[in-house]
C-alpha cells in the first residue's frame, strides 16, 4: 500500500458549501487550526444554485417583520415537525448572519434608503429574502470564499504562511470518519487528482456535505449530492432524523434529457403562468384539497383576476403549496394526460406579453432558450416534479450542532430538524449561515474542553484504505454507472413523490438486492482522477441513505410535507409527536426507531392562535396550551430583535 | 501540523502540482471556423484607409471649395502660409510647407495619435497587424510578450491627452462645418456638401464622446454615482455610446473619406455640388 | 431516435496524450457534457471530466470545444452539423491532470495575492448603507462563476507561460475593479496594486476574455479599461495632476471617511 498523507488539525470541516465555509470561518476565528475538505473545487459547491435569497427578518422592507413572525412561518411551513429550538435560533440569528456578510464584502440588492432589499417568497408573511437578482447563492458562497482568503492573508501577514491556520483541500473526498473509543479521532479520504489517500487527525469534524438528491433520477442537485455526510455520520454511529421528508419541487424541466430536473422558478406561476395537461385543461382546479378550498379560486376567471386584485379575489390553485402542486402533476401524468416527455405544460406564453416575460423572468427565458431551444414567450414549457432538498438529516443539538458522536457536528442540509417536514424557500441559505456558525463554534469549544485528543487507530486506517481500494480488486465486476442508474430509478419510482406501502416494501427489497451489486462494482484501473472509481465509493453512501429514506417512509403512516402516502392521506397529530430516527449497524443494517418530538415551550406555542395549533396537535397538547398562561412569555424574554 | 510533507508545489484552493506540463496539443488552434477572416478584413480596411489618407493629405491640393467654403477635415485647420487664405480659418501662423507635408500636420498627428491609442483601434491592430493574438484561442507568433508595460506601448496610457485634443479638433471641425453654409458669392448657402460635412461632424462627435477615456472622466472614476446625479446621467449616456465605439470608429473612417473625397471632387471640378439653396 | 456522431476527446496526462476517437449516440436536446458522460458510462469509465451543476452556474466544466473555450454544459449539440466532428480538449493554459481535467490552481493563487475587501472602520454590521446605482457595477463582476475561461483564453499567459508570474489575468482584474468601485471599501491603493502587482499593463485589450465569458460580463469595457483609466487618473492625466497641485488634494476625492452616506 502506498504512503498516506497525514495532516493534523483541530477542526476538519467536510464540505465547502455555505455551511461548511461559515463553520470554518468560525472555527478559525476561535483560533482553531482548521481544514476545509472540498469535494469539488473551492467555490463550486451546490450553494451556488440557490437563486431566490436568504430569509432573515431584518424588517428593511416591512418594519412589522421580526423573528417571531419568521419563526411562525417556518413552523407552519414545516407542518410543526421542526425542532422548535432550531427554528427559534434560526429566526433570531439570521439577520446578524446576513449583515455580517456585508462586512465580508457581499453586495446585496438595495432598498431606496440604501439598506439590504428583501423580496416576497412563498410562505413568508413579509418580504424577507435578502437577494442579489436571482444569484443569491453565488453571492453567498463567493463572499464566504473570499472571507476565508482574507483570513489566510491575515495569517500570512502574521506567520508568512497562508495556510498556517486554515487550509482548503480541494477535490478531496472523505470516505470514512475515524472513531476511537466512541469519539471522533479523524477522517480518511482520497484526493481526486492523484488518487492518493489522505488522513486527517482531528478531534472535531463538522459535516456540511449537503443533500442526497443524486440518489434520485430526476433531481435539481449536482453530482456531489450523494449523501456522503449522512452516510459518514451513520457509519460513525450518529443518527439520522426524519429521512422520509424529501422535498420535490413541482416544476423542474423535463426536456431535453440533459437538463431534466433543473428548476423552473415558482415565480413563473406567481407571474401568471398556468399548468395545463395534454388536453389543454387547467387541471389544478380539480386538485384543491378541502383544507385549502376557502383560500383558492374556483373558476379560471376568479383566479385570473387575483393577479391584479388580490384583495377581492382568491389566488389561483397553481399557487398551492409545493407538495400539492407536485402531487397533482404526478397524478395527471399517471392518468395519461401528460406532455410528450412525461411532464405537464407550464404556459405563460399565451397569458402574458413577450415584453412582460422578458422583464419579469429573464433568467427563465435564458434558461429555456439556451438549454431547451424553447422560446417561453411563444410556447409552453414542459415541467414535472424534481427532487430538490432533503429535510431529514443528522440529528444534532440545536445550540451546538453536535451530533450523537462526541466530536461530530453537522450543519446545513445534512443536518435534520430545522425545516420539519417541508422547507420554506429562502430558509436554506439562512440556515447555512446560522448553523454553520454554531457548528464552528460548537466544534471549537468541544476541542477546548478536551483533556486529551483521541488517537487514530492504525487498524481503522487500514480498514478504510482497504474498503476504498476494494473496487479495483474486483475483476469483471459490474459497471458502477449502471448500478447507479438502477438505484436512481428505484428511488424515483418507488420512494418518490407519492408513496404507498407495497411500493415501499418493494423498494426496501430492491435496495437489499442492489446492495449485493454495489458490493460487487468494479472500478476501471488507475487512481488518478478516475470518476468510475469515485462513483463506486459514492454508491455505498447513496445506497445507505436511500435505504434510510425508504424505511422511514414505510414507517411513517401519514402524509405531511415532503412525505405523501397514498394509503395514509392527511396529517395525523399523533404522528407529529414522533421523530423517526435511523441508525446503522457496523455491518450496514439500517434500523428505524420512533422517538418523541421535543415539546415546544409554552411561550413559543403562544405565538400561534389556538385555532391554528389545533390543526396540528393532539387534544392533549391543546389542553396543555389552554392551561398555560397566554402572552408572549418566554419567547421574547431573552431578546427583542 | 503536517506530519508528512505536502508536496511543495501544491497550490491553494485546488489540489495538485503546479508547473506540470500542459496537455500536449501541437496544433496552433483547433478552431474550425473562419477565425482568420476578421483580422484579414481589418488589415485590408485600415490599410486602404491609411493609403488614401496619406495620399490625399500629402497632395496639398483640392482641399478647399472656394465657392461654398467647403474645407476637408484632412486640411483643417490650415495653418501654413501655403494655404489658400480663405481656407485658413485660424490664420496662417506657420511658414510655407514644402511639398508632401500635410497642411493640417499639427492636428492630423494628434488625431492619428488619438486613434492609435484608442482602446478599440488597439484591439483591432494588435489582433490583425500584430497578430497578438490573431483571434481568441489562436496562438500568437511572438516568442516574448510584455504588453503595454513598457516603452513604447506604455504610451498608450496617454490616450487621455489625445482625447482632450481630439475634443478641441472636433470643435474646429464643427466650426468648419458651420462656416460651410456659404452661398456662392456670399450669404447663406446649402448643398449636398453641407449634409456630408455635418454628417461627418456628428459622427466624429459620436466617436470622440464614446471614447473610453471620456466615459471615465464623466463619472466612471467616481464610486458614488448617487452623489453626482448629473455626471451619472452623462456617464449613462456615454456608456451607451461606448457600447458602439467600434462602430463609430469605422463609420468615421468612412465619413472622413466620403467628406474628403466629395470635397476633392467638387474642388477639382470633377463633380458639381448639388445645391439646395444658393 | 439518436444519431451517431463522431467525437475526438483528448486523453492523457502531463506526460503523454492524444486525441481519441469515439462514435457515440447523440439525442435531441443534448449538450456536449451529456455526450462526454455517455462516453464515460459506456466506453471509457475512467474518462476524467470536471463538472458539477450542469446548468451553467458553477463554472466547473470548462473545456475547449472545436478549439473555442466553452462550458461543456452550455454547448448544445444542435450547434454542430450532423457530420461535424466535435473535438473536446482540456484548457490549454493550465497544466493537465488527466484527460479533460486541468490544474487551475494558478487562479486560486492569484486570488490569494489579491488584497481582500477592507471593511470601512466604524461602520457596524447592519449599518452599511449603499445605493443600488452605486453597487451595480461591482455586482456585474460578482456574477463571475469562476469558470476561468477568460484566464484560459488570455494570450498573455496562454501563449507565454513565463508571464504567469507577473500577470493575474482578467478574472482578477474584475475582482480589482469590483473592490475599487465598491462604495465602502476602505482600501485606496487598488489601482496601484493592479498596475504594479497584478500586471494590468500586460493586457492589450484584445477582448478575448469578454468574448468567452459565459456570464456575459463586460470584462474589458467595464472592468479592465476603467481600471486602466483609473490608473491614468493617478499617474498620467495632466488635468488631474494640475488640479491636485493647485487644490492640494492628496488623493482622489472619492473614498468617503464616513461610509454610511450616500
UniProtKB/TrEMBL annotation, chain A:
<dbReference type="GO" id="GO:0033765">
    <property type="term" value="F:steroid dehydrogenase activity, acting on the CH-CH group of donors"/>
</dbReference>
<dbReference type="InterPro" id="IPR027477">
    <property type="entry name" value="Succ_DH/fumarate_Rdtase_cat_sf"/>
</dbReference>
<dbReference type="Pfam" id="PF00890">
    <property type="entry name" value="FAD_binding_2"/>
</dbReference>
<dbReference type="InterPro" id="IPR037099">
    <property type="entry name" value="Fum_R/Succ_DH_flav-like_C_sf"/>
</dbReference>
<keyword id="KW-0560">Oxidoreductase</keyword>
<dbReference type="InterPro" id="IPR015939">
    <property type="entry name" value="Fum_Rdtase/Succ_DH_flav-like_C"/>
</dbReference>
<dbReference type="InterPro" id="IPR036188">
    <property type="entry name" value="FAD/NAD-bd_sf"/>
</dbReference>
<dbReference type="Pfam" id="PF02910">
    <property type="entry name" value="Succ_DH_flav_C"/>
</dbReference>
<dbReference type="InterPro" id="IPR030664">
    <property type="entry name" value="SdhA/FrdA/AprA"/>
</dbReference>
<feature type="domain" description="FAD-dependent oxidoreductase 2 FAD-binding">
    <location>
        <begin position="10"/>
        <end position="429"/>
    </location>
</feature>
<feature type="active site" description="Proton acceptor">
    <location>
        <position position="322"/>
    </location>
</feature>
<keyword id="KW-0274">FAD</keyword>
<dbReference type="InterPro" id="IPR003953">
    <property type="entry name" value="FAD-dep_OxRdtase_2_FAD-bd"/>
</dbReference>
<feature type="domain" description="Fumarate reductase/succinate dehydrogenase flavoprotein-like C-terminal">
    <location>
        <begin position="484"/>
        <end position="601"/>
    </location>
</feature>
<keyword id="KW-0285">Flavoprotein</keyword>
From TrEMBL, chain B:
<feature type="transmembrane region" description="Helical">
    <location>
        <begin position="35"/>
        <end position="55"/>
    </location>
</feature>
<keyword id="KW-1133">Transmembrane helix</keyword>
<feature type="transmembrane region" description="Helical">
    <location>
        <begin position="187"/>
        <end position="207"/>
    </location>
</feature>
<protein>
    <submittedName>
        <fullName>Membrane protein</fullName>
    </submittedName>
</protein>
<keyword id="KW-0472">Membrane</keyword>
<feature type="transmembrane region" description="Helical">
    <location>
        <begin position="161"/>
        <end position="181"/>
    </location>
</feature>
<keyword id="KW-0812">Transmembrane</keyword>
<feature type="transmembrane region" description="Helical">
    <location>
        <begin position="246"/>
        <end position="265"/>
    </location>
</feature>
<feature type="transmembrane region" description="Helical">
    <location>
        <begin position="100"/>
        <end position="121"/>
    </location>
</feature>
<feature type="region of interest" description="Disordered">
    <location>
        <begin position="1"/>
        <end position="23"/>
    </location>
</feature>
Automatic annotation (TrEMBL), chain C:
<keyword id="KW-0004">4Fe-4S</keyword>
<keyword id="KW-0560">Oxidoreductase</keyword>
<feature type="domain" description="2Fe-2S ferredoxin-type">
    <location>
        <begin position="5"/>
        <end position="92"/>
    </location>
</feature>
<dbReference type="InterPro" id="IPR017896">
    <property type="entry name" value="4Fe4S_Fe-S-bd"/>
</dbReference>
<dbReference type="GO" id="GO:0051539">
    <property type="term" value="F:4 iron, 4 sulfur cluster binding"/>
</dbReference>
<dbReference type="GO" id="GO:0005886">
    <property type="term" value="C:plasma membrane"/>
</dbReference>
<dbReference type="InterPro" id="IPR004489">
    <property type="entry name" value="Succ_DH/fum_Rdtase_Fe-S"/>
</dbReference>
<dbReference type="InterPro" id="IPR050573">
    <property type="entry name" value="SDH/FRD_Iron-Sulfur"/>
</dbReference>
<comment type="pathway">
    <text>Carbohydrate metabolism; tricarboxylic acid cycle.</text>
</comment>
<dbReference type="GO" id="GO:0046872">
    <property type="term" value="F:metal ion binding"/>
</dbReference>
<dbReference type="Pfam" id="PF13085">
    <property type="entry name" value="Fer2_3"/>
</dbReference>
<dbReference type="InterPro" id="IPR025192">
    <property type="entry name" value="Succ_DH/fum_Rdtase_N"/>
</dbReference>
<dbReference type="InterPro" id="IPR012675">
    <property type="entry name" value="Beta-grasp_dom_sf"/>
</dbReference>
<dbReference type="GO" id="GO:0009055">
    <property type="term" value="F:electron transfer activity"/>
</dbReference>
<dbReference type="InterPro" id="IPR009051">
    <property type="entry name" value="Helical_ferredxn"/>
</dbReference>
